[in-house]
Specification:
Largest sheet: 5 strands, antiparallel
Number of domains: 1
Shape: globular
CATH architecture: 6 Propeller
Distance between the termini: 44 Å
Number of strands: 28
Length: about 375
C-alpha cells in the first residue's frame, strides 16, 4: 500500500492555515439563490448527465429543482421513517452510474430507532418521483448514540459504492471503533451493489479475505463531513474532537489506509499515552479551533463556468461560515489556501456543498437555502 497521495511535509501543514487569508482570489465569484424554505438542506447532487438538481433535506425528503423551479412534491419522502434532529436524519444520496437506464439510487439515513440504514430505491414511471415501495435495506447498523453518523455515500471511479460511517458517537471514540478493523463504525466502506445479495465485496478491499470487516476500505475516521472523488483521489474532510479539523487525501488504490483517529486528531496525539502513529496517513491540511469548530467538506471544481477555478477544492467551517479552497498536486499545494468569504458573503452556518452534473458547485445553509457559486 503506497499511500503516495498523502505524504505532506509538516512545514507545509503548519503554514497552510496562515496562508489562508493571504492569497488573493484569482477571479471574482458570488452566489445566486437556487432554493429556499427547506428544513435542513445537507446535499445537492445530480445523476450523470442529468440537468436537474436533487436536494437532500435532512428531515427526510429529496426535492428536485428543474429549470430554476423546485417541484411542488418531493422526489422521495421518507420523513416518517427518519429520526431527524441534530446529526440524525436523511444524510446521503447517490445515483447509480447507470441511473439513466436502470433508475437505481441509494440513500443513507438514521431510522426511527436511531440506527444507520443504507437502502436502495428505484425511480417510478414518473421521472420526477421515486417508487417509495421499492426500498430495500442493504445495511443496518445498530447505533447507541445520536451523533457521528457520517452518512455520505457516492460511487467511485471504480464503480463501487463508498459509504462513510462515523465512529458511533460519544466524546473521544469511547468504543475505540476507529481503530477496530472489525467494526463498521469510524470507517469508509466500499461495496459492490451490482453483485451478491444484498451486495458483494470488492476483492481488493483490505479485509476481503479476513482480518477485519470485509466492507472496510479505510479506517481511523471520526465523522467525515463530507467526501469527494476527483479522478482517483478521495478528499476526506473529518470533523475534529476538540482542537483540530482535518482534510486528508488518499487514492482509490490506498485500500487499508488508516487515518489515525482516535490515536491522532489531525497531526496531533489525541491520546498521549498511546500515540503510536506508525503506518497512519497524516492529513494534507488542518486548522485549529482558533479558526473554526467543524469542517464542512466540499468538492474539487471541474465545471466550465469558471475555468480559473479548475482544480480548486472548496471547503468551509460550519461555525465561522468562511469558505476556502486550495489546489492539490500530489502531496503539495499548487496554490496557497484562498479565502472566498468576502466574495460569497455571510451566509450563516454552511451545512454542506453540492455539485451538479456539469461540475458546478453549490452551498447549503442552516437557513434552509441553497446557493449556486457563480462568476461575477
Amino acid at each position: 500500500m503506497a499511500m503516495r497521495h498523502s505524504l505532506v511535509l509538516a512545514a507545509v501543514l503548519a503554514a497552510a492555515p496562515l496562508a489562508a487569508c493571504a492569497q488573493q482570489p484569482p477571479g471574482q465569484l458570488g452566489v445566486d439563490l437556487v432554493a429556499e424554505g427547506l428544513e435542513s438542506p445537507i446535499l445537492v447532487v445530480a445523476p450523470p448527465g442529468d440537468p436537474r438538481l436533487f436536494i437532500v433535506d435532512q428531515a427526510g425528503q429529496v426535492w428536485i429543482v428543474a429549470d430554476g423551479a423546485m417541484a411542488p412534491e418531493p422526489f422521495l419522502d421518507i420523513g416518517a421513517e427518519v429520526t431527524f434532529g441534530g446529526e440524525q436524519g436523511l444524510l446521503g444520496l447517490a445515483f447509480h452510474p447507470d441511473y439513466a437506464s436502470n433508475g437505481r439510487f441509494f440513500i443513507d439515513h438514521t431510522d426511527r430507532a436511531g440506527n444507520t440504514r443504507v437502502a436502495e430505491y428505484r425511480v417510478s414511471a414518473d421521472p420526477n418521483r421515486a417508487d417509495p415501495a421499492s426500498g430495500v435495506t442493504l445495511m443496518s447498523l445498530e447505533d447507541r448514540r445520536a451523533n457521528h453518523n457520517g452518512g455520505w455515500l457516492a460511487f467511485g471511479p471504480d464503480g463501487y459504492l463508498y459509504i462513510s460511517n462515523g465512529d458511533g458517537g460519544g466524546g473521544g471514540d469511547p468504543d475505540r471503533a476507529g481503530q477496530n478493523t472489525g467494526s463498521l463504525f469510524g470507517k469508509l466502506l466500499r461495496i459492490d451493489v451490482d453483485a451478491g445479495s444484498p451486495y458483494g465485496i470488492p476483492p481488493t478491499n483490505p479485509f476481503a479475505s479476513g482480518g477485519g470487516a470485509a466492507e472496510v476500505f479505510a479506517y481511523g475516521i471520526r465523522n467525515a463531513w463530507r467526501i469527494d472523488f476527483d479522478g482517483d483521489l478521495i478528499f476526506i474532510a473529518d470533523v475534529g474532537q476538540g482542537a483540530w479539523e482535518e482534510i486528508t487525501v488518499i487514492g482509490v488504490d490506498d485500500a487499508g489506509a488508516n487515518l489515525g483517529w482516535n490515536v491522532l486528531e489531525g497531526n496531533h496525539c489525541y491520546n498521549a499515552d498511546r500515540c503510536d502513529d506508525r503506518g497512519m496517513v497524516r492529513p494534507f491540511y488542518e486548522y485549529s479551533h482558533d479558526e473554526g469548530c467543524s469542517v464542512t467538506g466540499g468538492y474539487v471544481y471541474r465545471g466550465a463556468a469558471m475555468p480559473w477555478l479548475a482544480g480548486q477544492y472548496f471547503f468551509a467551517d460550519y461555525c465561522e461560515g468562511w469558505v476556502r479552497s486550495f489546489a492539490y498536486n500530489g502531496g503539495s499545494f499548487t496554490t496557497d489556501v484562498i479565502d472566498w468569504s468576502r466574495q460569497i458573503g455571510d451566509r450563516g452556518n454552511i451545512l454542506s456543498f453540492g455539485e451538479d452534473a456539469a461540475g458546478e458547485l453549490y452551498i447549503t445553509t442552516s437557513a434552509g437555502r441553497v446557493w449556486k457559486i457563480v462568476p461575477r
